[in-house]
Structures are given as C-alpha cells and as structure tokens.
Design a protein that fits this description.
heterodimer; A: Cytochrome Bc1 Complex, Chain C; two-stranded antiparallel ribbon; B: alpha+beta; Immunoglobulin-like; 3 domains; four-stranded mixed beta sheet; 3 helices; 9 strands; 23% helix
Chain lengths: 506, 197
C-alpha cells in the first residue's frame, strides 16, 4: 500500500521469537514481560553491582595475604550482611551477562540492529566484553583456587601478546612475587572497568529517545526478590585459598565469565585471541553484513513547518533536531532531519498537523488518497463497513481479509504514522468504523508508534483525534505479528458491535 | 516501553497509579527465576578441572641479567670525555661533549640460555632475549611443563655469557614430585645457584 515502498512484515526468525514472547506474555502480560526490558534489567543489575561493590570494598583487604581472609570473613562470619552482599554482587554480574546475551539475541532475531541502530549494536558488543573483563578481575580479587586458575590462564593469554615486558606468569610462579601492589592494580582495573561501562552506556543510549533505563516497579521487585532468593539459597562462596605450589584441581566454575579459559587446553593462547577477535569483529559488522535497503528519510517541507517540536519529541531515534529559522516565516525554529539516523518509520508524519513532515515514497496525500479509495471500494457492501489501519510489523499483512468483505486494510510502515486527520476521512466517506492494529504495547518495532497513537486517540498527546469522531466507532488493538487469530477475533467483534442495535449510523 | 508511566503523555495528563498485584508479581518472578535465576545457578556451579589429579608441573621461572656482549666501561668513557671537555673549556669558547662517543658504548647483553632435561629427555633449550630497546636489561625466563608425579632427575644448565661450551650455572637433582605439586626452578641471586623449590 505505498506508491514506492514495499512494506515487509516480520520474517520467520522474527515470528519465531515473537511466538516465544507470546507465551511469556500469557504468563506476565505484555506490561511486565521481562524480554521487553532486557536493557533496563541490565542497568538494574549494574546498579546492584555498583552499590554492593562499594560496600564490599569497605571490608576488602587489599593485600596479597589479607584478600582471601577478608572475603572469607564476609562470607562465613558476616554471612547475614557481607555474605549476602557478596552473593548479590556476583549474581547481579551473572544476571547482567545473561540479560546482555539475551538482549543481543533479541535485537538480532527481531532485526533491530541495522542502519540507524548500528551505534547501539557496536557499543553493545564492546559493553559485553567490558563487563566480562570487569567480572574476570572481580574473580581475581578473591584470591582463591578459582582466582589462581583465572590469573594463570589470563596471564598466559596476556603474555602471548608481545606488548608486555615481563611475563605475567612469572608473578604467579611463587607466592613471594604476588605483591600488595598487584592487588591494588587488580582493584583499580575492576573499578575502572565498571566506570567505563557506565560511560559506554551513555554512548549505547545516545541515539535513543526516552530510553527505558528502569524496569517497571513490579519487575524491579521481582528482580530484587530473585537476587535475594538466589543469594540466600545458594550463597556465593570461595574455593580454597590460592596455593601457588599446587596445580588447580576441580574448582566451582562460572561458565558465564570463565568460558574462554578451557579453550587454552585445546589451542594456543594466540589461537584463543584470534578466535575472540574474529568473533567480535564478525558480530560488530553484522549490521553491515546483513544490510538491507532502508526506506528514504523523511523530508521536511519548511514552508509548512511551524517549529512546534512535536516531531522532535516523538522521533524514537533522535533523528530530528530543531534549528533557528532559515527563512522569513514568523516562527522561531524549524525541523531538520538527520538522514543517517532516520528510520523512515513515519512517526514524525503522524505527529505533524501541518503536512511538513513527509516520507517521499509514502506521502500524506498519497495515504489520504488510498484511504478514500479503500473507503469507496466498500460503498457497495451491505451492513457495517470497517477500514483497518494496520502496522506493517503487526498482526495482519495484506489488503483484503478473506471472509471479511466488509473490511479493507491499509498498511502503514508504523502505526504511529497515522495522522489524526487521516482517521477522520473514512467517516467522511461513509465508513462505519475504524479499526487500528499496531504492535503489542511494550514492543513497538519503532519503539513508540503504538503508544503515541493510543495517546492521540485518548486525546492525551497532540495532535489529538477530533472530538467529533464517535469513540465507539474507533477500536484500537495492540498485537504482535503472531497474534493474527486475536486480530481477526477483535475485528469480527468490532464489526458485530457496529452492526448491533446500539450502533448508530454515521 | 509498555509502561506508559515512563512516557510523556502530553497535556499534563495524570494516569492512575496501579496497585501492586500479587499474582502478577508471582508470575513475573517465576519467569525471572526460569530465565535468569536457574541459568545463573546452573552455569556457576559446574565443577571444572583444567588439570587431571594425576598431573604435576615444573615451572622454570626467574629473572636474570646476562653479561655484556662488549665489555665496555661506560663510567670510564664518561670520565675521559669529561676530562677532555674541561681541558678544552680552558682554551676555547664553543665546545661540546662528544655524546656520540658515549652512546657508542654498547650496552647489549647476552641472552640467557636455559637447557632443561627431565629424566634425560630434553624439555627446554631456549634463549631468552634481554628486555629493553637496547637489549640491555634482564631476561625474563618462564616456561612450564606438565609431568607425571613421581621421582624425576632434573638437569639444568644456564648460560649467560654467550658461551654454550661452558655453563654459568648448573643443577642436577633428583626430586620427588607428588600429584598436583608444582616445582619451581629458579636462579637464586644470593647464592648464585639454580635451585628447585
């Protein structure tokens, strides 16, 4: 339904992932589905790590002889406070890794990593490795047998890079070589890695408008409960104290952080580095390797722009900026679109009341013409007629629905593209009802399209739907692409209501 | 994103606060336990052993400075040049020290070569280059070998003066290594001897 754009619905991988999330939605509802808040969950874990880390640092003895004993004191003697804190610190770090991995997989599966999202993707890959480095050095600090194994393995890997003068393994050959200064260095690296993670997080979120950094309250309570539950049921403990005169035997292994080291048994340290670098590079360039053609960026018709800033407010990717007026019109500002950041979702066209924002291949005039054409097609149909506005990533793709002759579907790139004045046209053309179907709440493909539109329907967000439109004749449903059955059911119910005795003629 | 409280609604609209639903909380927590709690517990508690209990190790680990390749007395050169400078200063106004002459004193050291054989089998025959841009610093010697526990005869020769015909330090010792033990072979600067600890 465009004069140039071929709208594509979700592919098989996307449907598979959405199908999985549909099951989770059945348990949690979409409002609290943790898979919709993986980034925010990760940030929550980061805060837990930060706060618990500061308290642990107070009790930590930064010496070669005292490090292990101080951690043991917390774990055993002060299990009710220090021990719990240590467990929270460790399990939050592991939770962060899990949240990060699933977040990455989700973005890939749902095709949300290319074009305007490349910076978030690449910075996310770097973030994951930074978190990993911070965790590895955290394990060193305990200085138990597990730490010794990590230290020796890391040393083997680091000294394979011809940058270091002294082989680090020499430090761990004898207990007398392991100095207090060494523990200070480890502590600084551990702290500094977290600091860099927070800084890089700002880059990660830099092109995301109104980024969600906190999970909903109920989800936060769930996370707190989970962390305490795991910490109390299975407190984090140390392995025996590091003994450099012995080979590391069986140790409790954290595969989320230590997965790299067993590879040293099967390949050289350089081989492991090569594998890590290749993997990281390939993952980082995935947005370019799998790049598809993007729709053209929004074009601003400056003579129509009043500088109202609504488009800038609504753009989900900070692709619109306001600048001082460059023409003689009596407004202070004008909108500018940053092409590289534009997702071509059309949300800004939905927020503009003055036809200033326009997708070159899906202009407002074109869409209004299509609405009229579809409405006229239904004129000969008896009974209630329904015009459906559907999101290309939503529950229904196509123009006509078999068995629903009284309905026509107009597919938009994003449901947020629906400008309120467009929704009034079907009623002017004799249509009885307008059915709006967008992505499920919490998971709009373009982040906010469904929320902005619902707010417009409810007259909470400008530009609002006309007061004169009978609200009973507008139905909005928010469904994922895998909810086609629910879509058809809701549409049939809506049609039934329009045909029922209560429905008034237009 | 679904939490509409996080989203500006425009026109100052206030949305009603929802009471905490205990059933929702239980459901959400159950999902969190399955997808975060269980993987965390499972993946952090699998014991792993990089080495077999029937393995031991010998590490050759020490730091040693090889002898200078050219026996150049840098102090003497500086002394001589200083003397010349002072003499010339008495008669001439513009003079400079011959830094090139000083820099010409080679400071490079011999690599430290370590030969190690265990039970007559050569395990190591390696030259460890001195560190530093001018190769004038100490050599760092590190290598490790996994061996079976038991009684082993260890023979080591170390060369630090570039003459492979005459070892600068040697060691020939029989050691009893228990399973899981790590023996460290190092050069003791105080006694000027190779030792096994």
């Amino acid at each position: 339904m465009s004069n140039g754009r071929k709208l594509e619905g979700p592919g098989p991988t996307q449907r598979l992932w959405l199908g999985f999330e549909k099951i989770i939605n059945a348990v949690t509802t979409s409002e609290y589905n943790p898979f919709y808040y993986l980034g925010a969950i990760g940030i929550f874990f980061l805060w837990v790590i930060f706060i618990s880390g500061i308290v642990l640092f107070i009790f930590y003895n930064v010496t070669a002889r005292g490090a292990y004993d101080s951690v043991q004191y917390l774990t055993v003697k002060q299990w009710y406070f220090g021990g719990v804190l240590r467990s929270l610190h460790r399990y939050a770090a592991q939770g962060l890794i899990i949240a990060g991995i699933v977040h990455t997989l989700r973005c890939y599966a749902l095709d949300r990593y290319k074009h305007w999202r490349w910076l978030a993707w690449v910075s996310g890959v770097i973030l994951m490795w930074l978190i990993w480095i911070g965790g590895i050095f955290g394990y060193w600090m305990v200085w138990d047998e597990r730490a010794k194994f990590i230290a020796l393995s890391s040393a083997r890997m680091l000294e394979s890079i011809p940058l270091f003068g002294m082989p680090l393994s020499l430090t761990f050959a004898s207990a007398r070589n392991v100095t207090d200064e060494f523990f200070y260095i480890i502590l600084v690296i551990h702290f500094f890695s977290l600091f860099v993670v927070f800084v890089l997080l700002l880059v990660h979120l830099s092109r995301i408008t109104k980024s969600i950094v906190n999970p909903p309250k109920l989800l936060t309570y769930g996370l707190v409960f989970l962390l305490f539950l795991v910490s109390l049921l299975h407190p984090a403990t140390s392995a025996p104290s590091a003994d450099l005169k012995k080979l590391t035997q069986s140790v409790p292994f954290d595969w989320l952080f230590m997965f790299v080291f067993p590879m040293l048994k099967h390949m050289s340290a350089m081989g492991v580095w090569l594998l890590i670098v290749t993997f990281t590079l390939v993952i980082s360039i995935v947005p370019w390797l799998t790049r598809t053609k993007k729709g053209p960026a929004t074009v601003v018709t400056q003579k129509n722009c009043t500088g109202c800033e609504l488009c800038m407010e609504d753009c989900p990717y900070e692709a619109i900026q306001m600048r001082p007026r460059t023409d003689s019109l009596p407004y202070e500002l004008e909108a500018v679109v940053l092409e590289a950041r534009c997702a071509s979702c059309g949300i800004c066209t939905g927020s503009c009341d003055y036809t200033a924002m326009s997708l070159p291949d899906m202009t407002e005039d074109y869409l209004k013409g299509e609405i009229r054409r579809c409405s006229r097609e239904l004129k000969s149909v008896n009974g209630a007629k329904v015009l459906v506005f559907s999101c290309s990533k939503g529950a229904f793709e196509g123009k006509e629905i078999p068995g629903f002759e009284w309905a026509r579907v107009l597919t938009l790139q994003c449901i947020g593209q629906l400008q309120p004045s467009m929704a009034a046209i079907p009623f002017e053309e004799g249509i009885d009802g307008v059915f709006i179907a967008g992505c499920i709440l919490g998971d709009c493909s373009f982040r906010f399209g469904n929320i902005w539109l619902e707010d417009r329907i409810l007259r909470h967000r400008p530009p609002v739907f006309k007061k004169s439109i009978d609200r009973a004749r507008i139905r909005s449903v928010w469904l994922a692409a895998v909810n086609k059955r629910d879509f058809l059911k809701s549409l049939a119910e809506f049609h039934g209501e329009l045909e029922g005795p209560k429905a008034k003629p237009a | 994103m679904s939490d509409k409280k996080n989203v500006s609604a425009g026109e100052g609209t206030k949305k009603p606060k929802k009471p905490l639903e205990i059933i929702s909380f239980i459901r959400v927590t159950a999902v969190l336990i399955v997808f975060i709690g269980l993987p965390v517990l499972i993946l952090s508690n699998i014991s792993y052993s990089f080495y077999s209990p029937q393995e031991s190790a010998i590490k050759v680990a020490f730091q040693h400075t090889g002898k200078r390749i050219v026996d150049c007395d840098e102090k003497d050169l500086i002394k001589e040049e200083g003397k010349r400078y002072r003499e010339l200063l008495k008669t001439e106004k513009r003079i400079s020290m011959n830094m090139g002459k000083l820099a010409g004193c080679p400071r490079e050291r011999f690599p430290v070569v370590v030969d190690l054989s265990i039970d007559g089998r050569t395990m190591l025959d390696r030259a460890y280059k001195p560190k530093g841009i001018k190769r004038d610093m100490a050599s760092y010697i590190y290598d490790d070998f996994i061996i079976s526990p038991g009684v082993h005869r260890i023979a080591v020769a170390m060369y630090d003066s570039g003459n492979k015909n005459k070892a600068d330090a040697t060691l020939d010792e029989t050691v009893d290594i228990k399973p899981g033990d790590v023996k460290v072979l190092r050069f003791d600067d105080a006694s000027n001897k190779l030792v096994v600890e």
